[in-house]
Amino acid sequence: MTNKEYITYHLGRFGLADTDIDFILLEAGIDPEGTVSTAEEKQSLKLAMHSQVPLLIAGLNNVSEGGYSVTWNIEGIKAWYSVLSTEIGEDDQLATPKPVIRDKSNMW
């Protein structure tokens, strides 16, 4: 399996175009035609996806015009990204911060 096929397998289900996948590989300096054979290569591809997906999500908009519409499953992408972040041990940049109680002195 090539690097491009690996990323296409993971991100293709969300409807990302080949140009988006080429962009991820280009930004990470990864050869699209290189083969994925070791755990280190898979890790570098996962890190590449992790670093670029937030930028790609920012540009996704649902469009409806006439009888044609394009919708994106943003929540599905965020859920996948969260799982990927946990898997590779990185921070989930798309997660909504959970409220934290720091001082209970003002509770009534």
SSE order and pairing:
Blueprint: H1 3-11, H2 18-28, H3 39-58, E1 63-65, E2 68-70, H4 74-88
Antiparallel strand pairs: 1-2
Task: Describe the overall structure.
The chain has 108 residues and is mainly alpha-helical. The termini are far apart. The longest helix has 20 residues, at 39-58. The chain is built from four helices and two strands. The model has no long low-confidence stretch (mean pLDDT 87). The chain has one domain. α1 crosses α2 (18-28), α2 (18-28) packs across α3 and α3 (39-58) runs antiparallel to α4 (74-88). Helices cover 51% and strands 6% of the residues. It has a two-stranded antiparallel sheet with strand order 1-2.
In short:
The chain is mainly alpha-helical.
Distance between the termini: 60 Å
* Uncertain stretches of 5 or more adjacent residues: none
Number of strands: 2
Q: What is the helix content?
A: 40-55%
Major sheet: 2 strands, antiparallel
- Give the number of helices: 4
- What spatial form do the alpha-carbon principal axes imply? flat
State the secondary-structure class.
Answer: mainly alpha
Strand order of the largest sheet: 1-2
Let me know the average pLDDT.
Answer: 87
Strand content: 5-15%
Q: How many whole angstroms does the radius of gyration measure?
A: 18 Å
Order of H and E elements: HHHEEH
Question: What is the number of independent domains?
Answer: 1
List key phrases describing it.
single chain, 108 residues, mainly alpha, two-stranded antiparallel ribbon, 51% helix, 6% strand
